[in-house]
Amino acid sequence: MSQPSSEFLEGFLAEAGEHLQSIQQNLLRIEQAIAAGEGPSGLAAMEEVDELFRSFHTLKGLSGMVGLDQAARLNHAMETALQGVRRGNLPLSAALIDRLIAGTRTFEAITRAVHQPDQPAVAVDDEVRALEQLLQAEPVAQPAPFPEAQAVQNLLPDLAAYPELWSALKEPDLRKIQAAAQAGQTFALLVFRPTPEKAERGENIDGLRRQVQAAGSLLKAVPVFSAGAVHFLLLAALPGAPDASQLAADEIIPLAARAAQAAKAQPAPGAAVVALPETAVRVPLSRLDELMRAAGDLILLRARLNRALTRLDGAPLPARRELQQLDQQFARSVRDLRRSVLRARMVPLAETFNRMPLVVRDLARASQKDVLLVIEGESTEVDKALVERLLDPLIHLVRNAITHGIEPPAERLALGKPAQGRLTLRGAPQGDHILISISDDGRGIDMEQVRAKAEQLGWATPGAAISNEQALAWITHPGFSTQDQADLAAGRGVGLDVVLKTVRSFGGQLSLHSAAGQGATFTLTLPLTLVILDALLVQIGAEQYAVPQTMLNEIVEIDPTQIVQVESGALLPFRGGSLALRRLADLVDLPEATTPAQGLARPLPGRLYALISAGDEHSALLVDRVLNLREVVAQPLNDPYVAQPGISGATELAEGRVILILDVPALLRQAQQR
Amino acid sequence: MTSPQPLAFLVVDDSATIRKMIMSALRPLKPVFREANSGLEALEQMTLHHYDAILLDLNMPDMHGLDFLQFIRGHKVFGRIPVIVITTRTDEQMRATVLAAGADRYVTKPFAPQSLLETVTDLLPLSES
Q1: For A334-368, what is each residue's pLDDT tens digit?
Q2: Residues of B in contact with A232 (CB under 8 A)
Q3: Phi and psi of A124, rounded to 5°?
Q4: Among B14, B15, B24, which would you mutate to test the A interface (most chain A Cβ atoms within 10 Å of its Cβ)?
């Protein structure tokens, strides 16, 4: 078996990913149609069948071209099955859909294994054999009678005036027209004449085709040769009257449809389709990374320029003023560039959310529960690097919600809840952050069980009240998960420590809100970008550090004489409560010479600044000075040999100095454990 | 002496990756490439530009490669442009149908880049004269 050729591998993976998304959506839509009781002819006529056939066919060719022969074999088997459906030899049954979903999952595993050559090869023999068996089975019942061409001619009499279009219509097209008519759609003929002027304006047949697909569906498109030139005729089915402003055609001719039957209820749509805008370019993420680095260099240059300007204070005023104006303009341009590059990296959350319907379907089946997945805010955009790393944590949380949170239908009915459980996946922007929440209407976290377990482990004092934050901290601790699988409520701990670690690894936070018997909501708060940050420069002694603004809640100037030294550390009475203080100097192990090391009992410099951590308002870091807020380009420290918990990266300052970027919440957590 | 016009190739396939592979294989000929992802787009391209050869996939949305081939062979205005069909269909029946419809060469996927290059190069001296 040949090795996949690496040159085209990334292109293959990107295209395969897009096809997989489309395949999964189509399979789920067909499954819903089967469950809704659509008859065989209605099913075989579905556009989804054609799209699936084409997807598997393309994937077969692509897999072969990059040397993935087993994948090609698998896709060929699935393509052949769909071909059988289109020809009417093979009924679209739930069993067939199951096999296709399983086959798709196997193909997905193959694509993931591409980057792990030492893993054993994914086997496809079982899938291929199962599909072949289905094809050889007795043809079930008569294939639905194909509508006579006459029937369609009665339906759309005007079509007869366009012989090139009419003669190009084949059986599947006629069935699609009937299905569209039954659904109460309107029909229109669009005429498009390509010219060099239109091509220059970006108006072309491909664009019109996409517009029609966006507005409704394209039933047929044919070229017509007349008067020595070619023009195109498109037959479209639309939900309402054609909107000329959305369709760049030369002519739009509505076609009268005769006595269409009552519209059937549409099956509930799956997650929103992710469609690239018309003039989109696929760019490798590495190229965007290069752009970010270039933008970062510009930021640095501008900072250097700024410093050089301050040294000119003695120069004559007019010269200085002009330079300062230029500097400000430069700063504005650099900010715009940075924003543009950030936006180029942004992709809709739908990329990740769209994988969930299949996950939910499988989990609900396996645990014999009825779950409705609601997705909101999937168009919220997030950094591409983030969207990929979100998949695993989200799947974990969804799995927990379904297996432990949502009750079996009988139990729900007994509780007065609808038998169908509801799982809501929501994304929303919030300033500099993205909020992603997974909400279920199940049992909620059983606080008593959690407390009991925590007491058992010696983490909680008996009788103490526990908050959502405390419960979350416990159940995400690696030691918490219960061995006993039957212990459902507290079993939420499974996998949560990994979720928390992943979320934190990209500077995010996890929070929990739960109400007993009503359900639980996990919320992830994520930064918009991982690379360019607004950071606070702070100083301790002679050392400077950068602290990302997103990790801080507030900066407070404090009077050192107010600090109270207690057994567990230092406390500051603050706004009716108290603030546990930690010296940054202690946490980063600075040498003695720069700051006094003997706790806080010694006299301190006149003023101190407390940086109150985001996510824990009762903890703060003490620093000597707060310098300024500036944009820094973060170089992450990912190498496990070098990485330290509490240090999230390094950055180069204008002066050429390299300073460390601190992960304040991590440092404080570490300190609490000492 | 004026420098010769570069060759112009139209690459028709609904997969961007396959188009890239075809273009990569033919790069030694230093041609100008234009791409189309369906028979309709390919026809549009043919009304706007001249091409020295067409690399044509068969199974494409909205207009099958075979229909496209029959269309351009059926109208003299397109001239007798060399057409190389590149497809996953390996059956003899399709091959015969496609060649009968007027294709000059029939290449199956997966193809070896060198072999595709040779196939195309063989066809071209006819149009250079």
Answers
A1: 878 877 877 787 888 888 888 888 888 888 888 88
A2: 40, 43-44
A3: -115, -5
A4: B15
